[in-house]
Amino acid sequence: MINKEIASHLKTARKSLGLTLVEAAKRLGFPSYQTLKSLEDGQREIKASELLKLSKVYFVGIGRLLGEKEIQLGNTFLWRKPPQVKIKKQIEAEISYRCEQYNLLEKLLNLKAKRIQLFNVTIDDISSNNDVDNLSECFCDSLSLGSRPAFTLQKVLEQNIGVKILFETIPEGSAISTFSNEFGAVIVINSDEAPWRRNYDLAHELFHLVTWKIVSEKDLKDQNFFTDIEKKADRFASILLLPEKEVRKEIADRIEIQKEFTYSDLVDIAREFGVSTKALLYRMANLRFIKWEDADKRAKDRELTEINKQKRRHEWGEKPRSERFTSLAVRCLRKGLISRGKFAEMVGIDRSEIDDFIENTGLMELEGTPIEIMAS
Questions:
Q1: What is the pTM of this model?
Q2: Which among 47, 264, 332, 350 has most CB atoms closer than 10 A?
Q3: Quick check: 270 pLDDT over 90?
Q4: DSSP string computed for 280-335
């Protein structure tokens, strides 16, 4: 049976992505654009396999078209750039062990483990660029990330909604997200990356958690689909970390005072928002301050690279750690719930370094005098 309503939805979905019949047919793997045209015109019945392809390529839920349930992603590690299988398995085992330690600390302190409820997002919510923009802005507001989200995102995700954020040495340019009933939501960031890159990776991986229920592992094995999802995750991160109102204000203030906008201003604003100059350039292109070709060209400019290097070299500091994991470990040590040896193992230091480590974190090892708290 030919469904004219479904045919109309297919055409609308394609046009919302700005794809021509030829471009869409190529992505779908159809032998000719005429095949797609016949579907959109309602000239022939749509096969189940074709509906699945259309749903993936157009980011439109089958549920919206046929009332069927969405495919869900199982408990797995989602890598941006996975290494060789042997190394991949080793790193995943280390992450699992770290999560087990995390759970142990919560249990010892009688804390109710925060298990994030996966967000109620559908495939339709990320269908177009505008949808992704709206989703990102919605999360920025709902999480109360403020005007400089890069500097509050980690704490909010860890403390408020229970995301376990870990920093590990993983392959360059990669990051990992996962969700399971045992560990909850987990994001793993490469500790060797630049601070601004880590901020961006965190926002990028948040997108994958947000869309965890609506994107299947099987879908992601399709390189074209994976590429599209990664672009959407990058866009989500850019909008989240660089709120339009705040970026416009920073740029306008400099132009009003100086009557010009220089590379030095670009780096200063990138530092202000905790992002890379490249990310800021593309956001400026998105906001139509500059052309996309200009953003590409200037992102590779040697002069900008040198100015950025000079202005930001002091930002690196020590390798980052999970703030909540460290805090829980110190609390357990203070209360005598774990030994000093176990503490050293958990935070990855030598026993002789414990006192200096705790002092540097600003956390005291001693409990101190108890305070009586009255019932309110």
A1: 0.81
A2: 332
A3: yes
A4: HHHHHHHTTSS-HHHHHHHHT-HHHHHHHHHHHGGG--SPP--HHHHHHHHHHHHT
